[in-house]
Amino acid sequence: MKLGDLQLSPRHLINGRWEIGTTTGISTNPSDTREVVAEYARADRNQTELAVRAAADALPTWSQSTPQRRADVLDMIGSELLARKDELGALLAREEGKTLPEGIAEVARSGQIFKFFAGEALRIQGELLASVRQGVQVDVTREPVGVVGIIAPWNFPFAIPAWKIAPALAYGNTVVFKPAELVPACGWALAEIISRSGLPAGAFNLVMGSGREVGQTLVDHPLVNALSFTGSVSTGDRILRAASARRAKVQLEMGGKNPLIVLADADLDQAVDCALQGSYFSTGQRCTASSRLIVEAEVHDAFVARLRNRLASLKVGHALERGTEMGPVVDDNQLAQNLDYIDIARNEGAEHVWGGERLERPTPGHYMSPALFLARPEHRVAREEIFGPVACVLRADDYEHALALANDTPFGLCAGICTTSLKRAMHFKRHAAVGMTMVNLPTAGVDFHVPFGGRKESSYGAREQGRYAAEFYTTVKTGYMLA
Ligand code: UN1
């Protein structure tokens, strides 16, 4: 039996030991809600504090470890993730509900992230400068921030923890990791691999449980020097206020309402492909999803007709079934929220094009059909992040109008354009008020070796991923010496 089939009993990892919780919780399979995936340990404040203290105690050892040792640890974790991508991808598909190929690809990406940061551990750089004073030499070096609290969402249960944990460890920090309560088995499977990688006890800790108990303790604890969070805007705001009040370093990745512009000169099949992938794959449960399709009037009707045809044949089903193109929604709450937005869209007068219905499948799960509306910019369905397979089309008079619509949002994560005009593409890349732009590509599904993050309400603090991760996971020290 592989992890992909077993019922698991994940425990916390605190100071190198597997610990039972103060309570237990269960996670279920969104493709078949009769199936319990994990019965997992949940921590209270006291147990979370033990993990924070363990991380603080391990800091002197791990922060002084050699780059070679860190590289070896991270490389080993990366190798095991890559070697077990099929098995762990099945566990991911089972617990979160993305399709098996999406799950396998995510685990592979997580392995590549650890391998990338294994290399980065060997490339920690500083600067040597001449002073403005005679005979003085100045250097700038990077040091770890300290204990890092990592609070991760459910939608990428391997990749997002990987792109926070790997740089944290590469730069010599110690970690307390809290996975989302919907995906404890994935968090535990990752932690189990990390626990066998040669880290000193306490350098990496796993604590499962609620945001109210575990998350809040990490946010408030004076020994937690930095917090990296991905999740909702409202939780991010609360974390920022509480953590900055005690001067902890904070990095937040939150919502998106990402536009994909389709100009009249675009390759229409390619544009429909970008929209389909960006809006509906991973069941639309990505902060990078394209939920506003802004289409130039000339090709509006043709684009909508082609996308509608693709949606009509999109195979929605059990995440582990061969041929499924879109898995279920993650849970009841998210499904109810998605269906609420379908009602809101209809009531506000958005024109329904396709989908947005609950679906029955042979197994009881949170299935719905992909939804498409024609909306106006003021409609809530065109303004608010839904986090499901729901997209809307906005009609634009011309490129300038499309760009204005694209930037007319409180969010600023990513933005895409489909066009064959180099001039328009270049203009768009410069003027989109976001952290990432995509030309003739879906807005979702990004590389692992370059910065990830946005502007406005989407993000706060230093960028994640690539070598820019050093900005968050290190602090610089300036040294002066009479030489
Ligand atoms: C991707 O689109 O490849 O929560 C990654 C999210 C993002 C990750 C998206 N932080 O959806």
Detailed description of the structure:
The protein is built from 14 helices and 22 strands. It has 483 residues and is α/β, with parallel strands linked by helices. The chain has two domains: 3-254 and 458-482, Aldehyde Dehydrogenase, Chain A, domain 1; 259-439, Aldehyde Dehydrogenase, Chain A, domain 2 (3-Layer(aba) Sandwich). Strands 14-15-16-13-12-18-19 form a seven-stranded mixed sheet, with helices on both faces. Helix 1 packs across helix 7. The model has no long low-confidence stretch (mean pLDDT 98). Bound molecules: 2-aminohexanedioic acid. 2-aminohexanedioic acid binds next to loops.
Number of domains: 2
Fourth-level CATH superfamily of the largest domain = Aldehyde Dehydrogenase, Chain A, domain 1
Q: Largest sheet, order of strands side by side? A: 14-15-16-13-12-18-19
Which structural class do you get from the secondary structure elements? Answer: alpha/beta
Instruction: List the total number of helices.
Output: 14
What is the CATH architecture assignment of the largest domain? 3-Layer(aba) Sandwich
Unreliable spans are: none
Strand content: 15-25%
Question: What percent of the residues sit in helical stretches (DSSP H or I)?
Answer: 25-40%
- Tertiary shape: globular
The number of strands is 22
For the termini, the CA-CA separation is: 64 Å
CATH topology call of the largest domain = Aldehyde Dehydrogenase, Chain A, domain 1
Round the mean pLDDT to the nearest integer and report it.
Answer: 98
- What is the alpha-carbon Rg in Å? 23 Å
